[in-house]
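Sharing in case it's useful to others searching the archive later.

Someone asked me privately for the predicted structure of FAD-binding PCMH-type domain-containing protein, so I'm posting the question and my answer publicly. Question first, with the sequence:
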Amino acid sequence: MGTKLMCGEGGCGVCVVQTMLYETVMEKELNYAINSCLCPLLICDGWEITTVEGIGCQKTGLDQIQTSLAEYNGTQCGYCSPGQVMNMYSFLTNPSYPIKMTQQAVENAFDGIICRCTGYRSILDAMKVLVTSSSCSKSDIGDIEDLKGKLCKRTGKICTGQCSDSTSVRLVLRDAQWYKPTTEQELIDILKKCIDKKIRFIMGNTGTGVFKDLNPANYDVLIDMHGMKELYGVSFDPTSVFGSNLTLSVLIEIFERVSAASETSYMKELAIYLSRVANVPVRNAATWTGNIMLKHQFPDFPSDVFTMLVAMQSEIGIGFQGEEISVENFLSYDMTAKVITYFSHKILDPDEVIKLYKVMPRAQNAHAYVNAGFRMRLDSKNNFMVKDTPVIVYGGINKNFVRATKTERFLKGNQLGDPKVLKGALSVLQQEVVPDSNPVLASPSYRKQLTLILFYKFVLQVIGDKAGVRFQSATDCLSVSRPVSSGKQTYDTQKIEYPLTEPLQKLEANAQVTGEAVYIDDIPAYPNQLYAAFFVSTVGNAKIQGIDTSGAMEIPGVVRVVTHNDIPDGCANTFSIYSPIPEEVFCSGQVLYAGQAIGLVLAESQKIADSAAQAVKVTYTDVQTPLVDLDEAIQKQSFYPKLSDPKVAGDADAAIKDSPKTVTGSISMGGQYHMHMETQISICVPTEDGMDVHSSTQWIDGVQTAISQITGLQRNVINVEVKRLGGSYGGKITRNHWISAACGLAAFLTNRPVKLKMDFHTNMNMIGKRYPYRADYTVGFTDDGELNGLKIVVYADCGASVNDNAIPPLLSMIDNAYDCANWTITPIAVKTNKPASTTCRSPGSLPGIFIIETIMEHISKSLNKDPTDIRVKNLYQQGQINPLTKNIITYCNISQIVQNLRDSADVQTRLQKIQEFNQANRWKKKGLSIVPIKFGILWNGITYGINLCVYASDGTVAISHSGIEVGQGINTKVAQVCAYEFGIPISMIKVKSSNSFVGANSITTGGSITSESCCQGIVYCCQVILQRMAPVKAKIKDPTWLKIVHECVEEEVDLVARSWYAPVGKDHFQYYSYGATCAEVELDVLTGEHQISRVDIIYDCGESMNPAVDIGQVEGAFVMGIGYWMTEELKYDPQTGQLLTNSTWEYKPPLGKDIPVDFRVNLLKNAPNPLGVLRSKAVGEPPMCMSCSVLFAAKHAIESARQEIGQLDYFPLDGPATTEYIQKACLVDPSQFLIQ
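And my answer, the predicted structure tokens:
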């Protein structure tokens, strides 16, 4: 339990623990947060390691960090919570920070832990409250004068703070040798002895997170450098020298401290730049040496450290004999059996300037699109004349490019403040820089533009006030200057109903923050348990010719390989349970996409299984180029048979023809990976009469059925149990049927327990994602913008199967909040060679609402009117009939909500300020957008089983329901309702695991309806019990709960009740949820980087059963939507069909600094829902549909940028609107790069 594992790359942070290491520069032991997934066990020699279990537990008491995170509702699924806790624990207990422990410092420290659930606001608030702006921890790194001349009297080398007293280590392992030298001579002897071996030096081992070839298992000799204390030194007299064992975090601390001195003030620039490399846990372990060695071994690696060292004109020390080489020559230098010992750097003269830049896909923890360093000796009194040859270095261009030497020569002797020089330099640079092309990288054209842009930014920054005021905004980096974020939440409660409507902490919160919450991966291994791993196809459109398993079977510990041939006769090779269209568990011949499961390797450990899966060799025939692009598939008419008829209301053709105004356009949106921190997992255990199953599923009934049909076991002997999931978002509705079916088959065939936990990369490659869409539309409307008719063709990229069809909810929600009598919506299911698209949070509503909101934007642009005014003009009113569903629009308050939002968010004043800002700034622009929502909640076809029992001796209550706790707080709400109905403390109620006995024949958890449905089921159960109790209660004087329970038992009253909640739903929606969002975005026109300045949300949650939980759902859904619309891009290899963005290195969900700086969530007050459960409304999905307001706000900022060059025409902004796409939409051109 406790520490978790997900990505194995140091990119998600769920594995963070604390280490206490002796730091020689500061001469004391210090606490550091590190990624345990990257830390080899043998490297921990002499370390003190603390995990979340070591700082507090439920029985003995929680640490203040754990308490704060729980109280602030900073946990939902809870899978990341141990990592969040330990990251903060290391921060608070590390006395080395040369900065104040401010709220800003806290936010800076949380750049390495992904939370898909909460939206980060609650986590950051919980952590920031633990520090005050007045608290300060003084660093023990001395001033620069203390570090000058710090040489060891014994060795004459850089002083390390103390002489080495470590003990050297040598271990002879089965496949390698492990050394831990402590002296220079020991290391030299090892290198001489192992000259013909494959050697790897190890410090942080963080490079394996990006480059799997660096896995220590691939080397003959591993040398742990931690014992080499003489390589930790620092000196500043007269040249600055930094030992090779210094981590990036220590280097940042040194730069921060010494920048206080005037002669080294420029080192503040270095510290800020390095703080944008990777994330805190990685920087705590990674050394600068390891970073440039990655560049040496993998020249394509855009090393930020290498760029910095080249800009600094550093020298690198090799070995112990005084050999030095320049950083630029380092890449071609043979480092075989050689060790870096330091880098040196001559302190800059007063007339020298150094500036460093990095443009990346999101605000934190991302590799550079392009990084750059500029160092110049300037005569500021002579219009910033470049006195000698400058240094201009770029990373991210191609594997060979380092310096722009032609541009450097051009600038020598010229004045940076001269516009002609700027123009000439840009011209030379444009010819000199030739980025390479790679489908996973940003486009060559964008990267080339960035080289020009960053040089332009440097010039503006250097000349300062000499530049025109409107151009000076280019010098500010949004992610560096970002203010501390804040949040505000408002709601009302009904205290008379407590604990119902009470903003209670989640029941599981304490267990989650202490690491005591048990997830499937935490279950101890069963006796004789096997471990499974998929091997998958590497091409996207072919036939399997042969499968060679001999390499896998030769690996010790491998037990068996399972393929489609091993499925018992009469059983089905499919995990589809209700669809007549099969989806194969194991590919039987025709490969439909790259990443398709071909078989399963079973072994005695997970490591062996994973390695053996890689050893299986699959050959193919009839290999064809896969279709992975939606537009190309549409062009080739790669369509499935018609899934549904067009949705028709009125006569759209006639209405459009008769309209005075029309627009025609197209809009697209991509897929989205669910990014659940817990990957797909199942444990299947054969029993005396069947099988017990632990599965990370949202649909127990489906898992039971899938295992039954592939093994032949009857469903009544398959027992499925689910306690909680580490996130799901729809990804574990049908897709876990697949994993559990494969695992169940393996357990059935071997008669041994089998655990199948998918590694992160296989999970990304094999499992489908959110549906991508394209919509082509024609719209007719009045001169005032009132809708007359819409014709929309919606293309849905289904991938390899149409089984998880998301088109129906799209067709019924595409109108969003807007009334129009005439519609024709034609859905077309597109077939591509990608994993079958599947359900993802708000599966049809999210794209449908984006489509109609895009249309509203298009109409407003064509009429030159405020988009909000056009939206308001078309809003539904109370009592109107929805033409698409024939529902009456009931209890419709959308117009009032929008008006309330305009007032409370002070929209008119802010629009005026935005206009003034945009007029004053050429290279920074702001935009604001309001998006309303009408979200229909469907009850038709839902079925949930609930059991409740009251125990005789103490009156406590146990509940089991067929919903799944995925972080949405279903167990907490169920307990609140039960406590309310019975009038007992919530502490007397326990919600048990969900299982296939209680939940037999129940539907999936999803659609935002499960919590309220199970709560209604609990109401029924409680009413049954209370009815049985009533005659007994009437006989008791001064009845109490316990008295009533005891007397009921005496009279043999049944205190167990079951509910089967299957309401007779309407044909369409039971009720509507309403809301509106106002988003404000600021963007850097030059780079496309952007910042969400403020978001205001009003959401109609009815009478919330638990406002704290519901606000968490609003924030989490909205931020997941920010990722979808702004940062999360899926890219596929056009030749093989393989997913290229299948790692945390390339796939970028939001982090803490990607959320709104000012995040305000208001649950509509005094708005009980007469059509819902206990007057509440659903909340899990609707807020996500308003997140497109961020994209539209960015679009309005782009419009302002385009207006600068006279481009006033409408343009579409597809999702995701990444940094690159935003920059391209701004139509930036070097001819616009002016000084005055």
